[in-house]
Design a protein that fits this description.
Layout lengths: L1 H25 L6 H21 L4 H27 L4 H26 L16 H10 L7 H17 L3 H16 L7 H24 L3 H9 L1 H5 L3 H17 L3 H6 L6 E2 L4 H10 L8 E2 L5 H37 L7 H20 L8 H17 L1
Helix pairs in contact: 1-3, 2-3, 2-14, 3-16, 4-6, 5-6, 5-7, 5-15, 6-8, 7-14, 7-15, 11-13, 11-14, 14-15, 15-16
C-alpha cells in the first residue's frame, strides 16, 4: 500500500511540475488562488513547527503534510489548466468525467486486489475522493443537461455508495441538492429538475433490484445501519465522533498557545466527555480507547486543534467563503439561462457542487487529512475559482 501511494505521489508531482512549466511559459497566473495557497501554507508551516517543537513523530508530520499540499496544488493546477485551455473546455469537461470514473473504478480495483471486498462487511474503504464529485452530478441534473457518461458515472458511484453503507454520503448528496434549491428555489419546477429526480429514482431502483436479485443483502445492511440508534437508544458512531470533537476542542482552548498555534500536526486525538462514556457502554471501552493522529473525524475542529487560530483560522474562513461563492455561482448560472451546451457553465456548477459536498463531508469526516478527498476537493475548488 505504501509503495502504491509513493508511485501515485511521484506521478502527481511530475504532472504538477509539467503543468507549472507550461503555465510559466504561457504567462498564465493563478488569479485569486494565491489567497488559498497562502492560507494552506500558513496551516502547514504552523502545524509542522508546533509538532516538531513538541517532539511529535517527524514521519507522521511529513505524512500529514501531504493531503493539504495536494488540496492546494490541485486547486492551482486546475485553475491554470482551465486558463491555458479555455478554448478547449468541452474536451476538458470530457477528460474530467473520464478521470472521475477512472479514479473511482481504479480505487475499487486496488482495494479488491490488495485486500479483497467482502460485500457482507464492506464499508468506507471502497469509496474514493471521486464519490463526492460523482454525487454532485446528481445535483447537476436538476439544472443542466448531462451526458450518457455522466449517467454511467452517477450509477457506478451510487452502487459504491450502497456498497460502502456510509450514511455520510447521503448527507453530502442532500447538501448538494439543497444548494441548488437555495440558490434558486424556482429551479425545482423546471423540466430539468423533474428529469433529474426521475433519473435518480430509476438509478436507485435499478441498483436496489440488482442487490435483491444477487442476494448481496446490502439493502438489509442499510436498514440495520439506519435503525441502529433506535435499537440501541443512541448511535455509537455519532457518539464516538462527538467524543473525538470534544477532545479536540477541549485541547484547542486549553491554553493561549494551543488557542493561537494549535497542538501540532501529529498530536494524538482521543475520545473524551460524556459521549465517550455512553459509547463505551454500547460498544465497549476497546472501541473508545483507539486514537487518531493529527486529523480527527471533523474537518473544522481538526484544523483548529492542529494549527489554532493563527495557523488554521484563515483556512477555515476561506473554506466557508468558498461555500458561499459556490452557491452564488450556481445561482448566476441559472439566472443567466446559459445554453445546455455551454461547457463553461457546466464546469462552474459542477465545481461549485463539489465544494459544497466536500464542505458537508467535513462536518463528519477528516477532509484535509485524506489524500484522495483532497485531490477532488482541490479540483472542485479550482473549477470554482476559475468560473468566478
Amino acid at each position: 500500500d505504501h509503495y502504491v501511494q509513493a508511485v501515485l505521489l511521484a506521478v502527481y508531482l511530475g504532472m504538477l511540475l509539467s503543468i507549472a512549466v507550461t503555465a510559466i511559459r504561457a504567462g498564465t497566473g493563478i488569479g485569486s488562488v494565491w489567497v488559498l495557497l497562502l492560507a494552506v501554507a500558513v496551516f502547514m508551516v504552523d502545524s509542522a513547527i508546533v509538532g516538531l517543537s513538541l517532539d511529535q513523530d517527524s514521519y507522521a508530520i511529513l505524512v500529514n503534510l501531504i493531503p493539504p499540499f495536494v488540496y492546494a496544488s490541485a486547486c492551482a493546477l486546475t485553475y491554470v489548466t482551465f486558463a491555458i485551455g479555455s478554448d478547449r473546455l468541452p474536451m476538458i469537461l470530457t477528460v474530467l468525467r473520464v478521470a472521475c470514473l477512472a479514479y473511482a473504478a481504479g480505487h475499487l480495483g486496488i482495494v479488491f486486489v490488495t485486500k479483497g471486498i467482502d460485500v457482507a462487511h464492506s464499508r468506507y474503504e471502497v469509496f474514493s475522493g471521486a464519490v463526492t464529485p460523482s454525487l454532485a452530478i446528481i445535483a447537476v441534473t436538476l439544472i443542466r443537461r448531462v451526458s450518457r457518461l455522466d449517467v454511467v458515472i452517477m450509477i457506478f458511484n451510487l452502487a459504491i455508495t450502497l456498497l460502502s453503507v456510509t450514511r455520510t454520503l447521503f448527507a453530502v448528496l442532500a447538501a448538494q441538492l439543497a444548494s441548488v434549491l437555495v440558490a434558486r428555489p424556482s429551479s425545482l419546477f423546471k423540466a430539468t429538475a423533474l428529469k433529474g429526480v426521475m433519473l435518480l429514482a430509476i438509478s436507485g431502483a435499478a441498483i436496489a433490484a440488482v442487490d435483491f436479485a444477487a442476494g448481496t443483502g446490502l439493502i438489509a445492511r442499510w436498514a440495520d445501519r439506519l435503525t441502529v440508534g433506535a435499537r440501541l437508544g443512541a448511535d455509537p458512531t455519532a457518539l464516538t465522533r462527538s467524543a473525538e470533537t470534544h477532545f479536540m476542542m477541549e485541547n484547542f482552548t486549553a491554553s493561549t498557545d494551543t488557542l493561537l498555534f494549535g497542538n501540532g500536526l501529529a498530536a494524538r486525538i482521543y475520545m473524551t466527555g460524556p459521549d465517550a462514556a455512553r459509547a463505551a457502554q454500547l460498544v465497549g471501552w476497546q472501541s473508545v480507547k483507539i486514537y487518531d493522529v493529527g486529523y480527527g473525524h471533523q474537518n473544522y475542529a481538526s484544523i483548529l486543534f492542529i494549527a489554532g487560530l493563527f495557523g488554521g483560522g484563515g483556512l477555515l474562513i476561506i473554506q466557508v467563503l468558498n461555500g458561499l461563492q459556490a452557491i452564488a455561482i450556481i445561482r448566476r448560472a441559472q439566472l443567466a439561462d446559459a445554453s445546455y451546451e455551454n461547457a463553461a457553465a457546466h464546469l462552474g456548477v459542477w465545481g461549485a457542487l463539489i465544494v459544497i459536498g466536500t464542505l458537508m463531508y467535513g462536518l463528519l469526516g477528516a477532509v484535509i487529512g485524506d489524500r484522495s478527498t483532497c485531490v477532488w476537493y482541490g479540483i472542485g475548488t479550482g473549477m470554482l475559482y476559475w468560473s468566478r
